[in-house]
Prior knowledge:
CATH architecture of chain A: 3-Layer(aba) Sandwich
Order of helices and strands of chain B: HHHEEEEHEEEEEEEEEEEEEEEEEEHHH
Helix content of chain B: 10-25%
Distance between the termini of chain B: 42 Å
Radius of gyration of chain B: 21 Å
Number of strands of chain B: 22
Largest sheet of chain A: 6 strands, mixed
CATH class of chain A: Alpha Beta
Structural class of chain A: alpha/beta
Radius of gyration of chain A: 18 Å
CATH superfamily of chain A: P-loop containing nucleotide triphosphate hydrolases
Distance between the termini of chain A: 30 Å
CATH topology of chain A: Rossmann fold
Order of helices and strands of chain A: EEEHEEHEEHHEHEHEHEEHH
Number of domains of chain B: 1
Largest sheet of chain B: 10 strands, mixed
Oligomer: heterodimer
Helix content of chain A: 25-40%
Strand content of chain B: 35-45%
Shape of chain A: globular
Strand content of chain A: 25-35%
Number of helices of chain A: 9
Largest interface: A-B, 32 and 22 residues
Bound molecules: adenosine-5'-triphosphate, magnesium ion
Shape of chain B: globular
Strand order of the largest sheet of chain A: 6-9-10-3-11-12
Amino acid sequence: MLEIKSLCASINGTEILKGLNLSIKAGEVHAIMGPNGTGKSTLASVLAGKEDYEVTSGEISFDGKNLLELSVEDRAREGVFLAFQYPVEIPGVSNVNFLKTAMNEIREHRGLPALSAKEFLTLVKEKSALVELDASLASRAVNEGFSGGEKKRNEIFQMAMLEPKLAILDETDSGLDIDALRTVAQGVNTLKTGQNATLVITHYQRLLEYIVPDFVHVLFDGRIVKTGGKELALELEDKGYDWVKA
Amino acid sequence: MMGNLIAFREQLGDTRLAMPEPLSREAKDGIERLASFPTTRDEAWKYTRLARVAALQLSPLAHYQQPEPSECSETIDVIFEPHGWFCAAPVEGLIIESAGNLAPEDWQACTTSGHVQYLNTLAAQGGACLTIKAGYEIPKPIRIIHRAKGENFAMVLHHQINVEPHSKVQFELLYEGQGQEAYANILVDFFIAESAHVHVDKWQNTQGTHYGFYNERIYQERHSTFCLHTLTVNTHFTRNDVEVFSQGEAAHTKLYGVFLGGENHLIDNHTFVHHMAPNGSSDENYRGVMKGKAAGVFNGKVKVYQHAQKINAFQSNRNLLLSSAASINAKPELEIYADDVKCSHGSTTGQLDALALFYLQARGISKEKATEMLVGAFCAEVVESVQSKHIQRAFAAYFSS
Ligand SMILES: Nc1ncnc2c1ncn2[C@@H]1O[C@H](COP(=O)(O)OP(=O)(O)OP(=O)(O)O)[C@@H](O)[C@H]1O
Ligand SMILES: [Mg+2]
């Protein structure tokens, strides 16, 4: 589904990703771990198409398409979803209006008719229940005044609504209490099918007890320096990163 | 001669209104004294070039477009006929006559200054005179419609609105229509008596190379309230001058505006509030959004006179630039001669929040639509308090087009 080859990316002239390779197939769950500032969020942003980053070399293909040629919105419409490490507050734009616009633009792209108001509300009810997002948050401005945990739930709620092929969760677990973590993880697991894939960026092996990965990668200095199974996360928790850096 | 004001004034023809002699004389002298259009060296026209206006070839407008009858149900419409104003559905408490029927002594005393007002005084083709009788609350908004169409026309109008004590009324001023190399100069005077309440929603959406100059002069007596919303979208050239004389004690004024410019448009908003009596307040909130090569101007002047103690004057102007070629010039001006007043003003100009834009796009929303949503949110604070449903709809429609 996703094939990243020798990806190099920089921001303001500083190279952050330095020849990264990663391959994800439908139905798989991958986890990326690694010390602060090594490029995890950069990778997520580059996949989502953030313009601040310049891809200097390498390739990314997504479902056979050259992802780097697509605009941010077209990537989302093709099924890439980034759950932000820091969800953005947008005063004056209601969550509901935002999601409805997003869903209908995605549906249009896929040749589907727009949802009726009723169909949309039914979905909102169903999916907000899935992540136990307080229904009143749906009518508020996007993320405005949401608590840290509410913002993270809102990301997963959006993911549930938009049903992406590839979901990238950037530290969705940080700021969540233990119950919330379980709820969010259950949400992610419920949405899992053989056709979609999940890329989880995390610092804590705890999340991986709930969202069990098929592969764990260590990202260090802009490259994936080690790949293993779910037991690698435990090992990292135990020993830290020093031993993989070499 | 370039910028010749005297020749310009001549092509507008003579006014059909019987203005008081001192006013006409003042205007005549004023034009002769100025002799040419102001240049950008003139503080009031610093960012607004008038060369294109001065070069217009004009003749007075002969035909006014009528609104469709179906539009008239929610409002009381004041419609221009070639020889006067007429109201489709008069109501109790409202008197409408053609300004052309007023005798010089029927015009309430006011001052006049600047070339725009001088030209208006000398060349107004007509106008409406509306009186809201004391104690009446007019049940539906009164809509004054300006919808001229054509080329090289000059539409010069002067309306007088008298709002008697303890009455309440809502107005919609519509400036639409289409003009090529056309000129509009429309002056509306509001005389708001003691404890009267006036709400005005003003919608400006003219098409074509239409050069519009709009002046509102508001005279407020004690305990009166006046609230104005000016929504300007997509006009080629608009200059708004709103001047409030808050001359009675505890009079309250709100001036709100949203101006959206694109292409090579110019939208210039000037406001001037005179606090002449104690215990009053003014609250201004203008939001400008410029894209393309559009230029916006906001100049908000507040003057607190010596005896006008305990005044609250608040002014906020926020602007968004959506392209690097767009510009905004914002200038607050405070002149305070009283010592016990609370005045604050703030002006910011920035760009669209790039992170917010990315977030919306990352959910599949096109850049255009995302921009529209963010601009809509930026304007919402002002647009929400517009009372006219018609204008709110027109604004929303402008957005989704
Ligand atoms: N605008 C910028 N200019 C220069 N350097 C930047 C800029 N933005 C990010 N960086 C740098 O890029 C590097 C990678 O950042 P990134 O956010 O990808 O790290 P991360 O692995 O997600 O870290 P964390 O675990 O703390 O979230 C960091 O050193 C960061 O300082
Ligand atoms: Mg990060």
